């Protein structure tokens, strides 16, 4: 039941550079790299969890790249592997280093001050075998207070069959847990922390921290249980006159338990604080007391066959009486021929005289005296097969004893009758009994001290469980076969002269059980106060729970002083409960939760079949682990459903706290492996069938641009992604670096780290990816084609509008943008282009109104309708209203269009205002012609800029002359100077020149520019003050010669608008009117 933990003191690393350091919690396994980084002469250094290794990853190199390493390989016939000698060892060197490294994991080390003031480190060697190192500690932890103080009462209340069921369930639960624990413990060395270490390294820091703290609470409350048991033995059986509060009222005994329990706790805490070595030295004495008491019990059972003990029980009718206040079980007795009344008469009558008025029940029923222990051959086992459950306050009665029922007696019944002090039922007895089978982790906690832990832990633990299970089951049968039922149900032995019931069965004297159980409970309490602080210290030193870090420190010799103080405080809570029966179910919950996760850890590791899962113990199976896990969970709710819920809530709160606030640890746990398997399974399932429209949501690939410092240039792009996604679906934030991966490897890693940092800052949940490519265009193409995996690929690309495309020295930026548009279209992916992205609201802003305007020009799958709805789910856009605009041509019935659109929006379950804008055919304005002319002239200029510098200057001058001076006709005479230009303009000539230039402009460009200008006028008029405008994005021209014109069209379409999101569908329906 109590739990022993390896004591791992800590010393600061000496500044002298001697390299000597002690273990800090030993919660982190040593990697081979750490072994080979140590000097040959100094192999005692063990790196703890507080060494600054945040990720808890093992280092990959085995050797330091120093001169000694190189010299080792000189003149070796391994020249083929010379390039790898700095990072990987030869096998012969590996085996040599491992054979010399004998102190990988420290055992129980006690640092105490010697008489001359110098510190001595007394560390046990690794020479403990199975019997001493595992079997006896488990035996001592399992057998204890419940066996001596409550097992007889459980047998009497539940009956032999019910008690057998309770013992069998609990023992099978611990046996299955021991099998799982043996598999985990033999899959590597288990340092200090025992169950916490196994669970945390198998299920991850969240589960490990939650269950570790529950295990710590269970161990602490176990200390309360043992202290309450110690005080119960002291005040009832050893020194009953030492009570502070007198009387038989319900508060007297609990108050006495609180006072003496607090004093006992303070004394034990002082002993633990002074030195744990005294507790360890007394462990053998405590174990001897347990074994001696059990042997005395078996000896007493054998003696009942020959001569039953002379202990009698007095019954009034069928009611059992307390016989501590009277000697004679009779109403009257004859002394010297004189009939006088007995002491018992005085309890039921108003005077000592024979004519006194007595209680009706006392008058009508006779007093009988029966043997408390009829013996093994008496046949009493038949009467004790079935249980006798009763409510609190009911008298303890013999079933087959005749009696005359009457009204309740008017005398003070608490003085003479025996009552049930609590309501008794099967599930309560399970919760009270279960602490008697805990303590199976004692062997795994001593793994550092064992000669062969991988052999000793399974054999010793399972053998101890089988031994104690035999003891418990045999005691259940023997108690039921030897002891009278009313005596078994007498919890404190008041009917047998205030002797423990198991004590009157023991031989040669009840004091063997009294003294043995007293020292056993005292020792178990000391060991709980020793082990619990060290478990808390191990958790604190792992750094997974920030607010517990202070408890990782202690005295200079490593003793967990602060953890001990917290343990004493929590233990005092259990003592203030002042009831062994009330505390037992509490610690049962915590231990059962710990055992549940041990089984879960083994089952997960077995099912995942990870390469590192290679336990030496072979006799395990995942079905056994699941059976043990199910049995633990069932026992939790059987014992107490509300305690079970409280324990689960506590563990859940700790889990979520560690998940959100705890340190990030990578321990190669099974939950991560389970997540990978689940992800693989889900991805394969997604590939089996195409995605339905109802399940479509934007899976976004965000194209980010980095500045010269490799920082994200437009972080609001990530903010907008967060607002659009709200943590749902897939988000891949990517960027492209120009160059080769070999030359820009470090920059690529830095860029990816900066992307992750920006995602954290903008609360964007997803993945980051930086690609190095020979040019940006190929990098974008690679991302569009290959980002994502299987069914979890992106279906939408989000990028910022290239604001500086006009100012660029060449057309690379324009080409990259347009090629990205073309490739997303070819890949059937949607495209979102945000203009003025830096003016978009951040995640901390709240828009207090306004509208999100959708300009639905063409139907491209309904993405325009879906995006405003997704945005409105986020708190930034929640108060914005949605408006849908569509354009009616000359031949369209705008009234009918509006009705149809309203009905369509209604069927889509969207809350939006609908408006139809009429755009009739009109003449192309002069402004449109001029804008188109400037566009084509600029395009022509950019084409000519690909020529040589001299030619570019000449062409630019010619274009300039054509725009300014060529509007006039120059009279060029044959002998005139070329510098002189004669310009004579008339109104007719000017109009003719403009008409000639208009005729030279491509009519398709004019029509496109006309559409952009007219549509822009309407959009600006209606949506100038809106918070966001969503527009259909026109497709790029099929002819690449018109790329620059395409950018001009888009600029004209968005001119005068603040926040614009151009949307281009992916060629499939993304929204449906069906449920």
Question: What would you note in describing this structure?
Answer:
There is one protein chain. This protein is of the alpha/beta class. Helix content is 49%, strand content 8%. The strands form four sheets. Strands 10-9-8-11-12-17-16-13-14-15 form a ten-stranded mixed sheet, sandwiched between helices. A three-stranded antiparallel sheet has the order 4-3-7, with no helix packed on it. Helix 6 (151-185) packs antiparallel against helix 21 (622-639), helix 8 crosses helix 9 and helix 33 (1003-1023) packs parallel to helix 34 (1043-1054). The two termini are 58 Å apart.
SSE diagram, text form:
Elements: H1 32-37, H2 67-72, H3 91-100, E1 109-113, E2 119-123, H4 130-142, H5 145-149, H6 151-185, H7 195-203, H8 205-238, H9 252-274, H10 276-306, E3 312-316, E4 319-320, E5 332-335, E6 338-341, H11 343-348, H12 360-364, E7 367-371, H13 426-433, H14 442-445, H15 453-482, H16 485-488, H17 501-505, H18 510-542, H19 561-577, H20 580-608, H21 622-639, H22 641-661, H23 670-688, E8 700-703, H24 716-725, E9 731-738, H25 745-761, E10 767-773, H26 776-786, E11 796-800, H27 812-826, E12 830-835, E13 851-856, H28 863-872, E14 881-888, H29 894-907, E15 912-918, H30 926-944, H31 949-964, H32 987-1000, H33 1003-1023, E16 1028-1032, H34 1043-1054, E17 1060-1064
Parallel strand pairs: 8-9, 8-11, 9-10, 11-12, 13-14, 13-16, 14-15, 16-17
Antiparallel strand pairs: 1-2, 3-4, 3-7, 5-6, 12-17
């Amino acid at each position: 039941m109590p739990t022993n933990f390896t004591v791992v003191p800590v010393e600061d690393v000496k500044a002298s550079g001697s390299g000597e350091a002690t273990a800090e919690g030993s919660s982190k396994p040593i990697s081979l790299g750490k072994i080979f980084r140590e000097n040959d002469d100094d192999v005692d250094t063990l790196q703890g969890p507080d060494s600054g290794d945040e990720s808890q990853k093992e280092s990959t190199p085995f050797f330091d790249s120093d001169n000694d390493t190189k010299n080792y390989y000189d003149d070796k016939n391994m020249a083929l592997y010379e390039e790898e000698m700095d990072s990987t060892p030869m096998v012969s060197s590996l085996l040599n280093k491992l054979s010399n490294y004998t102190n990988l994991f420290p055992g129980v080390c006690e640092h105490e001050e010697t008489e001359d003031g110098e510190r001595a480190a007394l560390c046990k060697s690794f020479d403990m075998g199975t019997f001493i190192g595992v079997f006896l500690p488990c035996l001592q932890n399992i057998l204890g207070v419940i066996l001596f103080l409550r097992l007889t009462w459980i047998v009497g209340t539940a009956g032999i069959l019910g008690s057998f069921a309770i013992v069998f369930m609990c023992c099978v639960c611990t046996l299955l847990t021991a099998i799982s624990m043996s598999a985990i413990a033999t899959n590597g060395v288990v340092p200090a922390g025992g169950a916490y270490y196994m669970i945390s390294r198998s299920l991850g820091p969240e589960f490990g921290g939650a269950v570790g703290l529950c295990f710590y609470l269970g161990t602490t409350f176990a200390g309360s249980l043992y202290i309450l048991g110690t005080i119960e033995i002291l005040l009832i059986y050893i020194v009953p006159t030492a009570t502070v509060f007198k009387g038989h009222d319900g508060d007297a005994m609990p108050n006495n338990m609180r006072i003496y329990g607090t004093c006992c706790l303070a004394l034990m805490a002082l002993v633990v604080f002074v030195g744990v070595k005294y507790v360890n030295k007394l462990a053998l004495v405590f174990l001897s007391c347990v074994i001696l008491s059990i042997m005395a019990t078996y000896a007493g059972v054998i003696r009942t066959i020959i001569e039953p003990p002379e202990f009698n029980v007095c019954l009034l009718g069928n009611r059992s009486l307390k016989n501590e206040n009277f000697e004679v079980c009779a109403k009257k007795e004859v002394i010297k021929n004189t009939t006088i009344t007995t002491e018992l008469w005085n309890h039921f009558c108003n005077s000592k005289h024979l004519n006194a008025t007595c209680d009706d029940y006392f008058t009508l029923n006779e007093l009988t005296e029966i043997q408390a222990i009829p013996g093994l051959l008496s046949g009493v086992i038949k009467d004790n097969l079935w249980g006798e459950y009763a409510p609190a306050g009911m008298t303890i009665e013999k079933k087959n004893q005749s009696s005359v029922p009457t009204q309740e007696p008017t005398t003070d019944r608490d003085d003479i009758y025996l009552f049930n002090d609590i309501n008794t039922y099967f599930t309560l007895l399970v919760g009270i009994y279960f602490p008697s089978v805990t303590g199976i982790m004692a062997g795994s906690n001593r793994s550092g001290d064992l000669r062969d832990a991988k052999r000793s832990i399974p054999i010793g633990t399972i053998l101890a469980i089988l031994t104690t299970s035999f003891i418990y089951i045999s005691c259940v049968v023997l108690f039921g076969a030897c002891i009278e039922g009313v005596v078994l149900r007498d919890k404190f032995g008041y009917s047998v002269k205030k002797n423990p019931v198991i004590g009157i069965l023991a031989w040669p004297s009840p004091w063997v059980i009294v003294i043995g159980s007293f020292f056993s409970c005292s020792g178990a309490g000391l060991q709980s106060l020793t082990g619990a602080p060290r478990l808390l210290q191990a958790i604190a030193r792992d750094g997974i729970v920030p607010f517990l870090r202070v408890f990782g420190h202690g005295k200079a010799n490593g003793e967990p002083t602060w953890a001990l103080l917290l343990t004493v405080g929590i233990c005092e809570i259990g003592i203030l409960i002042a009831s062994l029966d009330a505390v037992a179910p509490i610690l049962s919950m915590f231990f059962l939760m710990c055992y549940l996760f041990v089984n879960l850890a083994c089952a997960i590791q077995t099912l995942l079949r990870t390469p590192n899962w290679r336990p030496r113990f072979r006799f395990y199976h995942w079905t056994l682990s699941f059976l043990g896990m199910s049995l633990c969970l069932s026992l939790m709710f059987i014992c107490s459903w509300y305690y079970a819920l409280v324990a689960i809530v506590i563990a859940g709160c700790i889990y979520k706290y560690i998940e959100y606030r705890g340190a990030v640890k990578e321990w190669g746990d099974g939950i991560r492996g389970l997540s990978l398997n689940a992800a693989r399974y889900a991805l394969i399932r997604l590939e089996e069938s195409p995605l339905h429209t109802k399940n479509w949501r934007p899976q976004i690939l965000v194209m980010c641009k980095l500045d010269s410092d490799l920082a994200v240039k437009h972080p609001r792009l990530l903010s907008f992604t967060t607002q659009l996604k709200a943590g749902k679906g897939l988000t891949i934030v990517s960027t492209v670096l120009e160059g080769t991966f070999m030359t820009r490897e470090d920059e690529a890693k830095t860029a990816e780290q900066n992307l992750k940092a920006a995602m954290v800052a903008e609360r964007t949940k997803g993945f980051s990816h930086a690609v190095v490519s020979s040019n940006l265009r190929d990098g974008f193409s690679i991302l569009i084609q290959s980002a994502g995996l299987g069914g979890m690929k992106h279906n939408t690309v989000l990028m910022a509008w290239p604001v500086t495309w006009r100012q660029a020295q060449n057309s690379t930026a324009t080409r990259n943008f347009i090629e990205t548009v073309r490739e997303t279209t070819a890949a059937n992916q949607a495209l979102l282009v945000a203009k003025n992205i830096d003016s978009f609201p951040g995640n901390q802003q709240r828009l207090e109104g306004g509208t999100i305007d959708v300009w639905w020009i063409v139907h491209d799958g309904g993405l325009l309708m879906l995006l405003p709805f997704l945005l409105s789910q986020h708190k930034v856009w929640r108060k914005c209203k949605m408006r849908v605009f569509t354009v009616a041509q000359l031949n369209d019935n705008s009234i009918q269009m509006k009705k149809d659109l309203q009905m369509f929006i209604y069927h889509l379950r969207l809350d939006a205002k609908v408006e139809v804008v009429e755009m009739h055919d009109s003449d192309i304005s002069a402004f449109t012609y001029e804008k188109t002319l400037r566009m084509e002239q600029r395009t022509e200029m950019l084409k000519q800029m690909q020529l040589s510098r001299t030619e570019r200057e000449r062409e630019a001058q010619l274009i300039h002359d054509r725009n300014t001076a060529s509007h006039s006709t120059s009279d060029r005479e044959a002998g005139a100077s070329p510098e002189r230009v004669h310009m004579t303009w008339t109104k007719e000539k000017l109009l003719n020149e403009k008409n000639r230039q208009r005729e030279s402009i491509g009519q398709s460009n004019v029509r496109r520019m006309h559409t952009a200008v007219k549509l822009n006028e309407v959009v600006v008029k209606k949506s100038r003050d809106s918070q966001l405008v969503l527009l259909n994005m026109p497709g790029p021209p099929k002819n690449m010669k018109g790329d620059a014109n395409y950018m001009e069209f888009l600029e004209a379409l968005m001119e005068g608008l603040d926040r614009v999101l151009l949307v281009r569908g992916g060629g499939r329906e993304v929204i449906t009117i069906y449920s």
